Amino acid sequence: MTALVDEHPHLGVEPVLRELNVPSSTCYRWRQAGTEPCERRRRDAELTGRIRQVHDESGGIYGSPGVHAVLKREGVHVGRKRVERLMRQAGLAGISPRRGKGFTRRDPDADLAPDLVQRDFTADRPNRLWVTDLTMIPTGEGPLWLSAIRDAFSRRVVAWETSARADADLVLTSLEYALASREVAPGELIHHADHGCRYTSVKLTTRLVRAGIQASMDSVGDSFDNALAENLWMVIKTECIRGRILATRAEGRTSRSSRTSTASTTPAAC
After folding, report:
1. pLDDT tens across 1-10, in order?
2. C-alpha closest to that of 188 among 206, 204, 212
């Protein structure tokens, strides 16, 4: 409306507004808002600048939940819906996770442990529930397999290990690292995994018995039964691997070291 008035100054402001059935006070108020924005618009402009900075610092990965989490940690009091609106207006968007390929290979003759978790990934204290899984990271030298153990209480990665082979030694090594870094009371810890042959191997099950750890396994073909571990892979592959071509396994290990050490502090994993 103000643009139309500006395009026809020879007609006069009042006649144009009268034909549009718009009060003159409304026109002047809109014109003033363009030159002297209100406090909320000035605040939106400031927030948009900070949001754009957070988005750029994440490498264009974070969406509105991630950006909002960063702002909240910095003490910026702003609603998630407002962040979402400002990002949409600024044309900013995060990267959506892709659905990964399953790597579970079962041993039909193995004895399976019961599901002691039943999708309840909560714990009242540390070292009461550990969830574990492994995933594959492609590199120019071939697959790099990553095994990790996560504490359900803090959501932190207790231990991780990589290998060129997805075997029982890989998951056993990550368990040994976890036991070396934590004090585990016999009979109080649950070790939750899938039905993969690495987790039903004699090596791993024997070590769990020796350490007094209760073995737990999810159901077949249902990622929700081990969702806490699957969430870790989503964070890693979305924020660290997506869009990158890793030339060597050594590069993959270095990249993984920085992400797994802070996995519990990233917005997507909190």
Report:
1. 555 555 655 5
2. 212
Other beta carbons less than 10 A from residue 71's beta carbon: 19
Question: What are the chain's domains?
Answer: 2-90 (no CATH), 129-269 (3.30.420.10)
Q: How far apart are CA 87 and CA 269, in angstroms?
A: 21
What's the rounded Cα separation, in Å, for the pair 58 and 76? Answer: 18
State residue 150 phi and psi, 5-degree precision: -125, 135
Q: Which helix or strand (DSSP H or E) is residue 16 part of?
A: helix 13-20
Residues 227 and 92: their CA atoms lie apart, in Å, by 28
223 versus 190: the higher-pLDDT residue is: 190
How far is 119 from 23, CA to CA, in rounded Å? 61
DSSP 108-151: TTSPPPP-SSTT----SSTTSEEEEEEEEEEETTEEEEEEEEEE
Return the DSSP state at 106. Answer: B
Nearest CA among 129, 96, 70, 123 for reference residue 235: 96
pTM over 0.85: no
Say how far apart CA 113 and CA 193 lie, in whole Å: 9
Angle, vertex CA 108, rays to CA 107 and CA 112, nearest 5: 75
Report pLDDT digits (tens) over 68-102: 999 999 999 899 999 999 999 998 887 765 555 55
Shortest CA distance to 222 belongs to which of 55, 104, 134? 104
